[in-house]
Fold this sequence. Notes:
This protein folds into 2 domains: about 15-300, ABC transporter involved in vitamin B12 uptake, BtuC; about 305-335. The chain has a two-stranded antiparallel sheet with strand order 1-4. A two-stranded antiparallel ribbon has the order 2-3. The longest helix has about 35 residues, at about 300-335. A hairpin with a 2-residue loop joins strand 2 and strand 3. It has helices spanning about 1-20, 30-55, 60-75, 85-105, 110-130, 130-135, 155-180, 180-190, 195-200, 205-230, 240-255, 260-275, 280-295, 300-335, and strands at about 140, 150, 150-155, 230-235. Helices cover about 75% and strands about 0% of the residues. It is an all-alpha fold.
Amino acid sequence: MNRNRILFWTCILVGMICILSSLYLQNLYILRVAVFAVIAAMLAVSVNLLVGYTGQVSLGQAGFYGIGAYTVGLLTTQWHWSFWLALLAAFILTSLTGLILGLPTTQLKGHFLGIATLGFGIIVNVIFNNWTSLTGGPNGIRGIAPPELFGISLQYENYFLGFSLFCLMVVVLMVHLVVNSAIGRAWKCIRHDEISAQVSGINVYGYKLMAFSLSGGIAGIAGGLYAGFMTFISPETFDLNQSITIITTAILGGPGTLFGPLVGAGVLTVLSESLRALNELRLIIYRAILVTVIVFLPEGIYPFISKKLRKRGIASQLKLKDRRRELDEQDFSQS
């Protein structure tokens, strides 16, 4: 527990340093890529609550992502709400949507749950495309006002990067507190053995609903950030491919860990941008690398690195103890 706390607060300190340093970055390309990486990390954190902590498969996370984005877009352009109230409304609406979706689907398991959530994502995307009077259809929504803070517009990339990093830190802190509470322990019991958890008196249905609701709310915040940054949204951003990318990010980084989704988002973003110059070939290489990593590192990148560092630390401690034992024996023989 002490090591986890030290690691957690170290990452918070690093996050604060990143927020401050982002204010002085000038490379627009790096700034935009960093903002997209932060949004991807938040989406991975949201789906990790389902896949990693409760063992539920969700293939409709892009639906919550899109609902959050369209909520901010509609409230700021048509009803002229402030971005902050719209973002709060997006969180509440997507949380309620997750709760409503969880009412029938949390009783399903395995691929049946995956198919149900997949259908939810497809239905939401169809609504975005066809309800033209509200969503604009394929043309989407334009002219979304960027957020302002103390009279300062956050439309500039470095300001928005600092703001999005702060939001990600708040989300990670909230997830950390929840996971290490009685709720998180109940989630882990459900993931390991649902029947044993139910026999032990855990309200399996209720805790699953909590996971669905919180997961949807975090994805809604990510959608609101995307809408505020791009100032334009369209249905093609929130399709099935986006849902697959979100769950792949969480699995690649390490499901069931706090920092695994962050690592997965960073790796996928760097990998995608590094292969961009290869045009059509990059998609083949990109997916081949993903399959290779998932096959040879089934636990994820972050747990693999953590184990290696832990083994190295234990080995160094053993060497240090052996060296101290040798010195003590030498002192004893000389005396």
